[in-house]
């Protein structure tokens, strides 16, 4: 999973928010002396004036941020909590989508809701937002006049540090981490710094087959499998640590394959970011409406066959379950785009700035946006709370749990992160993980 580098950064050396003097531009609006790749954002020239170095673009004030991306991240983190929580269920036989095969009626209701609207929908949404934010970060460096090589170096550093964050997250907390994979994806996107829209379309379509093949795995039985070969049982602190170290090694080996799986979604997020779809939703209202009105039906119809099999309707064999997993995962991309379209559609009729959230529901919108602005911190905090509550060597609430209980715990954990994010927002402080990533990436 998150999370991603913050896509609303401006350094302390940058001018404060507010009206700015227009920079010299060419006839097509490109800053003078900058190169505009086909279909991409303007890129500053590789050579800067030696006696006038240009500072990186750094943090933007919360009141100046666009509301839709932050709001979507806050919503997506609830989905991430629900999707990840089932992997803490212990001492149960798990079937497709890692759901217990002998769940109660309440569990089955939870399985249908989460399996239809969350599983394989939350993580593609987060991946879309990662790529979108990466594109905004590239654009803002170009608008600042940062030389191309310096901007690419910044992106590479952020991605490498995100890999480090992910590796530590795996070893210390959760083997299902997504940060390491996002960091590796960021390295690829940094390499495609000035690639054309056409290049991203080709990459997206050509790697879609990888995503589809991997998605089928969710249709098969879940769980850790046979762990008797481990010298220490995973239900102990040391055994759990050993298991996560092994998981880290596995993720490192399969990272290229994982990046190829994420590239189709990242390509779409990049193209949306280049068009500023979430920054200027009113200008893209027809697109946003189509994404919502077409995406949700495709997502729901594609999810239901596997969801019904998960709750015991029919007895499909492994091959059919694998195919249903492919259908569930692939149509999840449509679901992610539908959520993006719905929030963009909603924000099109309102101010796109966080400082002007609507009066009705302003507290809810503000809280979700606060979480989205601290998505990395909240994502890591989720894992801390899950470990404390659910691991067999801690409070052990995950042992023998059904999906209804585990889902309610996931919602409670997410609400705790909301409270933390709101308190940080009121104090005017960034999330500690975001602060650390910026300091490590940008330096002083």
Top keywords for this entry?
444 residues; mainly alpha; 13 helices; disordered N terminus; membrane; Putative membrane protein YeiB; DUF418; transmembrane
**Helicity level:** 55-70%
Question: Distance between termini?
Answer: 28 Å
Specify the number of helices.
13
**Count of DSSP strands:** 0
Q: Which stretches are low in confidence, meaning pLDDT under 50 for 5 or more residues running?
A: 1-53
Q: Over the alpha carbons, how many angstroms does the gyration radius reach?
A: 22 Å
Write up what this structure looks like.
The chain has 444 residues and is mainly α. It has a domain at 114-352. 61% of the residues lie in helices and 0% in strands. It contains 13 helices and no strands. Helix 1 runs antiparallel to helix 3 (122-144) and helix 1 runs antiparallel to helix 9. The longest helix is centred in the middle third of the chain and has 38 residues, at 237-274. The model is unreliable at 1-53 (pLDDT under 50).
List the helices and strands and how they pair.
Elements: H1 67-85, H2 105-117, H3 122-144, H4 148-172, H5 179-191, H6 197-215, H7 237-274, H8 285-310, H9 318-348, H10 362-373, H11 375-390, H12 403-426, H13 432-442
Helix pairs in contact: 1-3, 1-9, 1-10, 1-11, 1-12, 2-8, 2-12, 3-4, 3-7, 3-9, 4-5, 4-7, 4-13, 5-7, 6-7, 6-9, 8-9, 10-12, 11-12
């Amino acid at each position: 999973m998150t999370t991603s580098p913050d896509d609303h950064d401006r350094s302390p050396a940058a001018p404060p928010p507010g009206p700015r003097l227009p920079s010299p531009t060419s006839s097509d609006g490109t800053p003078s002396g900058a190169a505009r790749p086909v279909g991409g954002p303007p890129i500053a020239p590789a050579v800067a004036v030696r006696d006038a170095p240009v500072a990186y673009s750094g943090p933007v004030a919360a009141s100046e941020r666009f509301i839709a991306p932050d709001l979507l991240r806050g919503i997506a983190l609830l989905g991430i909590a629900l999707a990840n929580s089932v992997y803490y269920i212990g001492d149960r036989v798990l079937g497709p989508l890692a759901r217990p095969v002998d769940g109660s009626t309440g569990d089955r209701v939870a399985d249908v809701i989460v399996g239809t609207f969350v599983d394989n929908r939350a993580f593609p949404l987060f991946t879309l937002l990662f790529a979108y934010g990466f594109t905004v970060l590239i654009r803002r460096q170009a608008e600042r006049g940062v030389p191309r090589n310096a901007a690419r170096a910044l992106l590479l550093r952020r991605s490498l540090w995100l890999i480090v964050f992910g590796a530590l997250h795996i070893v210390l907390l959760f083997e299902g981490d997504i940060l390491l994979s996002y960091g590796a994806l960021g390295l690829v996107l940094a390499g495609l710094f000035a690639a054309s829209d056409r290049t991203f379309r080709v990459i997206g379509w050509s790697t879609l087959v990888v995503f589809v093949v991997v998605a089928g795995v969710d249709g098969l039985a879940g769980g850790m499998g046979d762990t008797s070969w481990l010298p220490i049982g995973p239900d102990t602190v040391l055994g759990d640590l050993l298991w996560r170290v092994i998981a880290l090694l596995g993720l490192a080996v399969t990272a290229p394959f994982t990046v190829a799986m994420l590239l189709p979604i990242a390509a779409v997020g990049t193209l949306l970011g280049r068009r500023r779809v979430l920054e200027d939703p009113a200008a893209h209202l027809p697109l946003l409406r189509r994404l919502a009105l077409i995406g949700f039906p495709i997502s729901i119809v594609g999810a239901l066959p596997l969801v019904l099999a998960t709750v015991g309707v029919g007895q499909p064999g492994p091959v059919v379950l694998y195919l249903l997993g492919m259908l569930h995962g692939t149509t999840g991309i449509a679901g992610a785009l539908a959520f993006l379209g719905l929030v963009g559609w909603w924000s099109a009729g309102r101010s796109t700035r966080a400082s002007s959230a609507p009066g009705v529901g302003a507290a809810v919108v503000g809280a979700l946006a606060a979480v989205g602005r601290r998505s990395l911190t909240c994502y890591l905090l989720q894992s801390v709370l899950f470990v404390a509550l659910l691991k067999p060597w801690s409070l052990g609430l995950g042992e023998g749990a059904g999906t209804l209980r585990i889902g309610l715990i996931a919602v409670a954990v997410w609400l705790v992160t909301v409270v933390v994010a709101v308190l940080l927002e009121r104090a005017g402080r960034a999330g500690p993980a975001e602060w650390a990533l910026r300091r490590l990436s940008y330096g002083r």
